[in-house]
Amino acid sequence: MNGKDEDIIRMSQQMGQALPDKIRNKPELDEHLEFYYQAFLDLDTTRSHMMVATPISWLSIIEYARFYQLDNEDTNDFVYLIREMDKVNLKHVNRAFKSKN
């Protein structure tokens, strides 16, 4: 939970109000998926941000997998999952960029 959520929880309690749905029903990441989420956050820092965000490079993904000594099957899954996460992220980032302009 981040500090912003904690502030909202504290304010809701002080005011005697119910917690907002987005906090009360906040999804929890399965512990087996935390590696992929952290990897995506790490790899996001390697992308080029020009006029629009660019995809995370395949080489960066492979280097990350090698660093963590993933076997071939796990590497294939890792590449697939990171690329799928990246597609969704790029869609949101590019939509937000277009709405600002």
What number of domains? 1
Assembly status:
single chain
| Number of helices in the DSSP assignment | 5
* Percent range of helical residues: 55-70%
Describe the structure.
By secondary structure, the chain is an all-alpha fold. It is 66% helix and 0% strand. It contains 5 helices and no strands. The chain has helices at residues 3-15, 21-24, 34-44, 58-67, 72-100. The longest helix is centred in the C-terminal third of the chain and has 29 residues, at 72-100.
Short description:
The protein is mainly α. It is built from five helices and no strands.
What's the structural blueprint in terms of helices and strands?
Layout: H1 3-15, H2 21-24, H3 34-44, H4 58-67, H5 72-100
Helix pairs in contact: 3-5, 4-5
Supply database-style keywords.
mainly alpha, single chain, 101 residues, flat
